[in-house]
Write a structure and sequence with these properties.
Layout (H helix, E strand, L loop, with lengths): L7 H20 L16 E2 L1 H9 L1 H20 L6 H27 L5 E2 H25 L10 H25 L23 H17 L2 H28 L16
Helix pairs in contact: 1-8, 2-4, 2-5, 3-4, 3-5, 4-5, 6-7, 7-8
Bound molecules: NADP nicotinamide-adenine-dinucleotide phosphate.
The site of NADP nicotinamide-adenine-dinucleotide phosphate (NAP) has 22 residues, from helix 6, helix 7 and helix 8.
Length: about 260
């Protein structure tokens, strides 16, 4: 599971872990400046264009690597399909499914305020590097036995991924419908996991990437799940505090990120 010391994958994965911890620490001091925390004089682009541009590298880079590998394999051993190639293709498609939704569906439905250009550039760099890391490791460094899909761990991880993705998509749908087109107001979200936590979409996304790490069982996937928790975990607490200050009637029993706990 752990890549060897000389491997660039090893260093990139550790960069995610260290970068995630630093990002977490930074957010204990300042809010990440987008959405409701955008500074007024920042240069921005439309939310639709911004979300598309920043997330699409995590779809295109894995797709490119997958197509290149398939072309290579067709040239060397035509017509063969091993457990390894089926396993890695399925797992990569799972990763790309999330980013297809984020860049090609979420981006075009969003009713969010414009995104700061700096956020878009930083996120696009992150998505390119992470897209490369996850797909390169899966396609070139991982071996799956023929029985890869039959273990309880993989089934459990996949289930977690699907549940997390569903919560994330459903929660973003609830948030979107709190606004009419063109409106920029904040309302109290109700329904789904919002009955339990203020940041149901972030809770779903963290569950999703934990599930992906469990089913994939690779260091880069665990590093990415850790980074995601560090990136959107503190933002969940900022949103929770913002709701409590903004609305006197905000539900008192609602937690910030983890139902009944935190
Ligand atoms: N894996 C990662 O590291 C990572 C990092 C960042 C984001 N994401 C994912 O990307 C998605 C969007 O992230 P985000 O940080 O933009 O989420 P967010 O702050 O919850 O906002 C989501 C959308 O809903 C709107 N919104 C939020 N609360 C609202 C309310 N109470 N009333 C009306 N509208 C509301 C926002 O508008 P405004 O923009 O106008 O506030 C925005 O368009 C989430 O699914 C998140 O999980 C993942």
């Amino acid at each position: 599971m752990m890549p060897c010391l000389e491997s660039p994958v090893f260093y990139l994965s550790w960069s995610l872990v260290v970068g995630g911890a630093l990002y977490f620490w930074q957010q204990t001091r300042v809010h990440t400046p987008y959405g409701r925390y955008t500074c007024e004089r920042t240069r921005c682009c439309s939310a639709r264009l911004g979300w598309f541009l920043q997330e699409v590298p995590s779809l295109l880079v894995p797709l490119l690597l997958l197509l290149l590998l398939q072309e290579e394999e067709t040239g060397t051993s035509p017509g063969t399909s091993t457990g390894t190639s089926t396993g890695r293709t399925l797992l990569l498609c799972t990763f790309m499914l999330h980013y297809f939704h984020r860049s090609c569906i979420y981006a075009f439905l969003t009713r969010g305020r414009p995104l700061p250009l700096m956020t878009v550039v930083q996120a696009a760099i992150f998505c390119s590097v992470n897209g490369f890391l996850q797909s390169h490791h899966l396609l070139h460094c991982t071996h799956f036995p023929h029985s890869w899909s039959s273990s309880a761990r993989q089934a459990g991880g996949f289930l977690l991924f699907v549940v997390g993705l569903s919560i994330n998509v459903h929660s973003d749908h609830i948030l979107r419908n709190l606004r009419r087109p063109g409106e920029v107001v904040y309302r109290i979200p109700h329904g789904g996991m919002f009955e339990f936590v203020s940041a149901a979409n972030f809770f779903g996304e963290i569950v999703e990437w934990c599930g992906y790490a469990v089913v994939t069982w690779t260091f880069p996937a665990f590093a990415f799940a850790f980074f995601s928790a560090c990136s959107i975990g503190p933002r969940a607490f900022h949103h929770h505090r913002d709701y409590q200050q903004r609305f006197e009637d905000y539900p008192r029993c609602r937690k910030a990120l983890i139902p009944f706990i935190l």
